[in-house]
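Notes from hallway chat w/ T.B., transcribed later so I don't forget. T.B. wanted the structure written out for a chain they're using in a teaching module, and asked if we could keep both sequence and structure tokens in one place. Agreed to drop them here.
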Amino acid sequence: MRLRLLALYPEQMNIYADRGNILFLQRRCQWRNIGFDHAAAGPGEGFDPAAHDLVYIGGGQDRDQRLVADDMLRSKRDALAAGIDDAAVVLAVCGGYQLLGHSYQLGDERIPGLGLVDLETVREPGPRLIGNVAIEAELGNGPLRIAGFENHGGRTYLGDETQPLGRVIRGHGNNGRDGFEGVRRLNLFGTYLHGPLLPKNARLADRLIQLALARRAGAEPELAPLDDTLEASAHENARAAAMRG
């Protein structure tokens, strides 16, 4: 087995230590003797959606996000849509998450998004949504607690038929109002949780690995157990920080 990962705009969209997520996926594959291929696609570069089973999009500053949005529409949107429809896994964090919807606001400017999921990100009066977050998700293998850190000025609202990644236990989530966090469509996952996300949530990382490997294997593989003492501690510390408010 091999996990084929593609990072989009790794230089421009790496404001929240996003490389830590990729490194964590790589290590969990290597510890299980699962091959790991890591490629990148930057500005102006297209990609073959059949060649990559997990696509990663990180977060960036407003300036970089604006530039990436235009380039992604022109050079990557169609390939990304084809990959999602063909069961590829996509993980988009913070700014990458906002890019998935119809549009998002930067100041008074409305930036067109990829339109891959039915959501809008707007600016509203009020402070940035900052702090530790705990959510509960269901990703096909039982309830999953996910913990992380959020820091976003935009408020994201899902369409009526759009599925969130999870429900907020503590924290703000998408907009601080409706109790939802993130988005899910097929094997596409968007979230505001970072810090980075996956080292704090080993079960989530393993679920993404399973789904990505299943794309070629035809069935979800059983992953060999690992000694997750440190990973469990990192998760519990992140979740405890969120529960303390």
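Follow-up for T.B.: The two ends are 41 Å apart (CA to CA). Might be a good example for the class.
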